[in-house]
Design goal:
By secondary structure, the protein is an alpha+beta fold. It has a 7-stranded antiparallel beta sheet with strand order 6-5-2-3-4-8-7. Strands 10-11-12-15-14-13 form a 6-stranded antiparallel β-barrel. A hairpin with a 5-residue loop joins strand 5 and strand 6.
């Protein structure tokens, strides 16, 4: 069958169709230079010459970054097998089951000279075959060293040494308005090893993508937003700063249709995310803390009743009867105000606090029940995807 290219996960099917304002501004700026009046002797005004020189310097900077990072970026091609049951066939009749191969294109970053490659877990999920395309055109088979669906990171291993790893950026210096550069394999076009370059700016930080990937227990709570164009095949690839340093892993696009120009999101290279990557590179799984509750934001009326300010506390909706929270006496309807002496400000922050707590740690929990504080102590358990899925049911809810 023909190859089917899967896009990065679509977050939403509704957004305003606004073009990238930074590009419009740049074009208007360039047009003003070209239409600027000439001097009496027929030459360009000094200001226009200086502006063109600045643009040329910027252009050269982008070219240098593209050349420098190219050996550190790879294209990824994944094949998955899907069983198809023809219409009218009995599912018990195995002879009637047909097999379909689906091809997924993605991207990745080399993170060690001896063949470790970072990408998204959703790119290689349920892969039957993984191929990695290096800068020199070499096509190599790859194995999954370790993967973590919740962070959406996976580390692949190829049999190759002497590779050029990406340089990690200093996350403390990343800010809105800075240049961002995507290098990757959109639509699988990098079959010759020469991957595509796209440029934008860092639009925002700390974006939450509720509902996206939660059926697979993914947690996108602090994403980097960029105007750099992102297309199917960019998933798992790097987002660089103007110095060619890795600041994010391209993961999703906010779009109405797969062909529409949308808003891009990348997992930020924060210290916490880098610790996850380092652990996966060591071949060790990531474990997350678990309480066994479904939590939501309090309503304005609930805040008034409890005397909470905006952005304070979460309301427990569901409790896992066999989970740590139930054993500590937590009940549906309780409001969690503090976790381990830290103020709880929302469901995502609460889930992150719980998830980062070592398994078995006993922490203090301050609940509000019937308007009265109720301190308790709880032993953090180990997150199990099966139990979380059962607790959620059909709801896309935060489940610490």
């Amino acid at each position: 069958m023909g190859a089917v290219v899967l896009p990065p996960q679509t977050l939403s099917r509704s957004r305003s169709h606004a073009g990238p304002s930074w590009l419009v501004a740049a074009l208007l700026f360039l047009l003003s230079i070209l239409l600027a009046p000439r001097t009496m002797v027929g030459g360009e005004p000094p200001a226009a010459r200086d502006s063109l020189a600045d643009l040329d310097t910027l252009q050269q900077a982008f070219q240098k970054v593209a050349e420098r990072v190219a050996p550190s970026v790879v294209g990824i091609r994944v094949q998955r097998r899907h069983a198809l049951l023809p219409a009218g066939s009995d599912s018990a009749d195995s002879a009637a089951v047909l097999e379909q191969r689906v091809v997924v294109n993605g991207s990745g970053s080399i993170v060690s000279p001896d063949g470790l490659i970072l990408t998204n877990e959703h790119v290689i999920q349920a892969a039957d075959d993984i191929r990695v395309l290096l800068y020199d055109g070499t096509d190599l088979p790859a194995d999954v060293l370790m993967a973590d669906p919740r962070s959406d990171f996976a580390v692949l291993k190829v049999v190759r040494t002497g590779l050029t790893p990406v340089r990690m950026g200093d996350w403390s210096t990343v800010a809105r308005g800075q240049w961002s550069i995507v290098v990757g394999n959109p639509f699988g076009l990098g079959s010759d090893g020469h991957l595509s370059v796209a440029i934008g700016v860092v639009s925002n930080l700390g974006r939450q993508l509720p509902g996206l990937g939660e059926t697979d227990d993914r947690f996108y709570n602090d994403m980097l937003q960029t105007t750099a164009p992102i297309n199917p095949g960019h998933s798992g690839g790097p987002l660089f700063n103007i110095h060619g340093e890795l600041i994010g892993v391209v993961t999703a696009m906010h779009t109405r249709t797969p062909a529409d120009e949308g808003v891009g999101f990348a997992i930020p290279m924060t210290p916490a995310k880098r610790r996850i990557i380092d652990t996966l590179c060591q071949g060790r799984p990531i474990v997350y803390g678990y309480l066994g509750v479904i939590a939501r934001q309090p309503t304005a009326e609930e805040r008034r009743t409890l005397g909470l300010a905006a952005g304070q506390g979460v309301v427990v909706q569901v409790v896992d009867p066999d989970g740590p929270a139930a054993q500590a006496g937590v009940a549906a309807g309780d409001t969690v105000r503090e976790f381990d002496r830290q103020a709880v400000t929302g469901p995502s922050q609460f889930a992150e606090l719980v998830g980062q707590t070592p398994i078995g740690t006993r922490v203090s929990l301050v609940l509000l029940r019937d308007g009265q504080p109720r301190p308790t102590e709880i032993a953090v358990g180990c997150r199990d995807v099966g139990r979380v899925a059962s607790l959620r049911g059909k709801d896309h809810a935060v489940a610490p």
